[in-house]
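Morning. Coffee machine broken again, so started the prediction first thing and wrote up yesterday's gels while waiting. Chain of 434 residues, entered below exactly as on the submission form.
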Amino acid sequence: MRVLMFGWEFPPHIAGGLGTACYGLTKGLAKNDVDVLFVMPHASGDEDQSAVHIVNASDVEALVDVSTIEEFWKRISFLEIGSNLIPYLSPEEFENVVNRQLKGITGHHSISFGQKYNFSGKYGVNLMEEVARYALVAATIARRQEFDVIHAHDWLTYAAGIAAKKMSGKPLVIHVHATEFDRSGENVNQQVYDIERAGMLAADRVITVSNLTRNIVINRYGIDPQKVITVHNAVDFQGHSSLEVERGIKEKVVTFLGRITYQKGPEYFIEAAAKVLKQYDDVRFVMAGSGDMLNRSIRRVAKLGIAVKFHFTGFLRGADVQRMFAHSDVYVMPSVSEPFGISPLEAMRANVPTIISKQSGVAEVLKHAIKVDFWDVNALADAIHGLLAYPALSTMAVRCGLEEVNSLKWDNAAFFIKKVYESAMSGKPCYHQE
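Came back before lunch.
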């Protein structure tokens, strides 16, 4: 079986969980005898192609006339976008985006028959334009290549998936890693919502990363439940080793690691920290990340009078993330809305007891993480205090959590996704995981 897969990023050049998930999945599919042709907007040439064939869309001439493709992406206005549409933006990229918006620089480009488009592959001000141009190139690739099924990851590539299906007639599977409701709450960007829904409607099968996300797809996008299948994410720990770090402080460390945005619940972490410090002083809290709520979070910490015990590290990636886990005694993910959530698995793999919100997809597969409602600051504070004050509780959470997370393998997720491919190709039902 050969799959034409569309993604936006691939290791080692990633800005978030989407690229990491694509990498783990393609490795798992290779072990399940699935050949993957992975198309990305901008490849650097140093991507790991041991389990996948990379196609750089920037090297492909658009040999399909715009008029031959569905009007879908023609109606996408090339507008500048807000930070809520940029799910994996680094601090440096965010600053550049803001500066360009303030200066009114747009720099639109065009592509026509027989020309190439130099994609940035970033999440910048021309993102909507790149999404549309990517679809044109996708149609060309679909005409040139031989494959059995199309797989498009996240809303950025849905237009490409639709174009490839129109050109080839092959079945389309789209993968929902997050929805616009996860990113923006009820203040959805209509353009992104429309792209998401169009992709879901055009797809023969829709894969969601959790039942939480599946319910959103069915109820908020009006998609037929028969074609929406849940396949939970996994995590790839190959090459990861336990780090031993020399701690410069004696206090215990409680860590929040993620984008400092509404979706991730940083305000609830801060309020819980203030409550814990009133009854347990031998602790420091760390908020690692960046985002549009960073300044507001800093002001709230100062107002609560806990700044001496609360630290902001800024954006972390790669080895720095692993070092942060090595320094941590408790990890907290208080997300308001989290389609899945890989970071708790990484924390548990690093022997860190973990607290997660019940409003996260990963809560569906973890039994040995402590679960609280994101809004219940008192329950969150009690859970943190319990793990800090009672070593037996922490030891049990570490032991059981490590066993549990080691069982969540991409090979297993890929096995189920191959079944989804076979269902899309045959037209027979495929039942989602409970």
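Residues 72-95, 100-110 have pLDDT under 50 and may be disordered. Going to sketch it on the whiteboard this afternoon.
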